[in-house]
Amino acid sequence: MSMVFDCAVADQRADGLAAAAGATRAGQLVVLPTDTVYGIGCDAFNAESVVALLAAKGRGPDMPVGVLVGSWATLDGLVMTVPPQARALVEAFWPGDLSIVLPHAPSLAWDLGRTGGTVMLRMPLHPVALELLREVGPMAVSSANRTGNPTPVDAAGAREQLGDSVTVYLEAGPCGDPVPSSIVDLTGDEPVLLREGAVSSAAIAEALGGPIRVGR
After folding, report:
1. Environment class of residue 210 by beta-carbon count within 10 Å: exposed (0-12), middle (13-18) or buried (19+)?
2. Is the pTM of this model over 0.90?
3. Domain containing 105: what range?
4. pLDDT at position 216, please?
5. From CA 103, how far away is CA 164, in angstroms rounded?
6. CATH number at residue 119
7. Assigned domain for 202 exists
């Protein structure tokens, strides 16, 4: 049976974070708040957990999972190289609402779906998420909804869709309008804005010092 913790209550927050960390290390799924939407997450390096996450959402490996990190420094260990454009975006928007796609380090033993050798990374601006990430390390995280259904604005809404497929739900109140992160692809010769979300294309272009192409 799932456990639900109200992170607005100090004792429950501590107990909930401990339970979520334990569940993550055990290969189980957790729901956590972020600064954009509530997410369903697991240990990024546990391939079976990622498969379970995709199954809980009702989708396959053709829609791979992004990775949340708890610090800037984690980025260096997950990708082949960190180009100057990535550094500029990290300094401007992390922690925050921008996801960056880069070639992942080939030595990493993970399977996030059919990523084509890339990984989408973000550092969220939410104290509960950051505390959990700093405890357990990088987590594979996707929006906490069944594919095709509305993204819930709180953990209770996520539980209605995901049920007991998730071991721990961390409730931190409504996230407001569920606006997704913006996504910038830095795997090619020039940056490409794959999705304009919470961070505007103008703000991204300003951080990069030049225009950004939109599209795939």
Report:
1. exposed
2. yes
3. 3-179
4. 66
5. 34
6. 3.90.870.10
7. no
The residues pairing with 100 across neighbouring beta strands, listed in sequence order, are: 121, 184
79-88 tens-digit pLDDT: 989 999 999 9
pLDDT tens for 11-70 read 999 999 999 999 999 999 999 999 988 999 999 999 999 999 999 999 988 888 999 999
Domain-embedded: residue 7: yes
Q: How far apart are CA 3 and CA 55, in angstroms?
A: 20
215 part of a folded domain: no
d(C-alpha 182, C-alpha 199), whole Å? 6
Give the pLDDT of residue 116: 85
Q: Would you call 11 exposed, middle or buried from its count of C-beta atoms within 10 A (0-12, 13-18, 19+)? A: exposed
In a domain, 49, yes or no: yes
